[in-house]
Amino acid sequence: MIWLASKSASRAAMLRAAGVTFEQVAADINERAMEKDMAGAPPDEIVQALAAAKACAARVADGGLVLGSDSLVVVEGRRFDKPESRAMAAEHLAFFSGKIMELHSAAALVRAGKVVHMEHSFARLKVRELSAAFIDTYLHAEWPDVGHCVGVFRIEGRGVQLFDWVAGDHFTILGMPLLPVLAALRAEGELAQ
Q1: Collapsed DSSP state (helix, strand, coil) of residue 37
Q2: Which residues form the domain of 111?
Q3: What are the angstrom distances between the C-alpha of 49 and each of 8, 15, 165?
């Protein structure tokens, strides 16, 4: 049995589209406290630690394989979390305007409390110059849905309008390095070879 320790609709949709049967389960961790404890650590270490913590925190039946995943955004050396309000989302977008966004995504597979596989990937996205009017119109259409998204966008929706170019794996941008996860699920005997 595969358990997804994430509330992310995007991650669940990716797995469903790939034909993976799973159940979602809550993973109650204090992400902000973990990030604070890891202040100064590289983004790849932080996102991997968060993915593993989510998978380890999920309470599932013995023998179940738990998939935890997390993403974070870094722009000009500053790490961004999900916006807590529409005003904060507008501030994030104004800061991102004209800059390179680095999006880190990680996935951890945990069985019986032990990490059996860890994966990290990142993408670079060039945010185009965003006018205040565009930001307001965009948030009018996308809020509150993008409030659950690091980077304040859903690439599969209007969020694609934020960017001049994207370099990296599409699934990573959606929130999980899916292809390596599928390979790990096959290696763990959870998917057909």
Answers
A1: helix
A2: 2-187
A3: 18, 22, 29
From the list 29, 185, 53, 49, the residue with the least C-alpha distance to 104 is 49
Catalytic residue among 44, 70, 136, 164: 70
The model's pTM is 0.93
pLDDT tens string, the chain, 193 residues long: the values are: 899 998 888 999 999 999 999 999 988 898 889 988 998 999 999 999 999 999 999 888 777 899 999 999 999 999 998 999 999 999 999 999 999 999 999 999 999 989 999 999 999 999 999 999 999 999 999 999 999 999 999 999 999 999 999 999 999 999 999 999 999 999 999 999 8
Run of H or E including 65: strand 65-75
CA distance 39 to 75: 16
Distance CA 116, CA 45 (A): 17
Q: How many domains does the chain have?
A: 1
Q: Among 46, 60, 65, 48, which residue's Cα sits nearest to residue 182?
A: 65
Region label for 26, one of left (φ > 0), alpha (ψ between -120 and 50) or beta (otherwise): beta
Say how far apart CA 139 and CA 135 lie, in whole Å: 6
Verify whether residue 70 is a known catalytic residue. yes
113 torsion bin: left (phi>0), alpha (psi -120 to 50), beta (else): left
Domain CATH for 14: 3.90.950.10
**DSSP-derived secondary structure for 137-168:** HHHHHHTTGGGGSTTS--TTTGGGGGEEEEES
